[in-house]
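input
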Amino acid sequence: MAAGNADVIARIIRSSRTEALHHGAIAVCDADGKLLAHQGDIERPYFMRSVAKPFQAAVAQRLGAALAPEWMAVASASHGGSPAHIAIVEAMLRDAGLTTRALRCPPAWPLAEPASLRLIRAGHSRPRSVWHNCSGKHAAMLRACVAQGWDVAHYTDPQHPLQEAIRAELAQVLGATPAGPGVDGCGAPVWAVSTAAVAVGYARLGSQPALRETWTAMHRFAALTADHRASPVALARWTETSAKLGAEGLLGISTRRGMGVCIKSWDGAVRALGPVAGAVMAHFGLRASGTSDRLQTELESVILGGGIPVGRIEATVGLA
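output
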């Protein structure tokens, strides 16, 4: 890697030439908070976005949300809005005596293009809150509020007891005091932390008994936690991991052996995260024998020209 490019985690190759670079940070930690490897500025803070969802879901469960494993997976999801996703969110609300009108996430079309096209062809002309990729998280939060007898109309306010419990959980699990709050895309509070702190949290996600239920649901029902083509689904399919994408170029990976990985692309792009994740997994020998080629194929990103492959996204991982 050229001098001055120590934080380049991936490069875009088109027709044998480097066309663009993705600068970022990578941290690998264990559940005790020990830094195992790193690249780039791992202490620079940014908002956690959706990588916080597994911890938010775990708090909701602890407060009485009574989430079945499939429900827990959707509560931890940035889902694609498939019929299965929407049916689960509606069931979560109905079982708590609520309707989709209780959701405080904004109206949206599904993330997955096939799901949006299906709805449009069925005659829908306006987005709905239940189709928002965070509706599972919001449904879990509402279930916790009902169980605790808390106000359900303002559950996204930072001063609401649910959100205060979530902030306390993040501070404990990440081993760092979150800064903020900010406002996430779905309207819920979002907290600023570092790449190193997220890696510690994801190490504990796979090892702390209080979080293991969430890890297991995300691993077993990975296709419910994201669009089926997303890198977390491929990682769960071929490795002993649970993973979560977050907006603005963020990926958290939790291994069953208590190792956490956080990858942050500073330009906010997610396209490099799959190849970089594959390189990190290979570095630590976390890909099972006989599955490396399949995983690599699913994580690779192809650059097209004229509709045919003319390049690739190449990970430039140089862990210290």
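quick obs: The longest strand covers residues 17-30.
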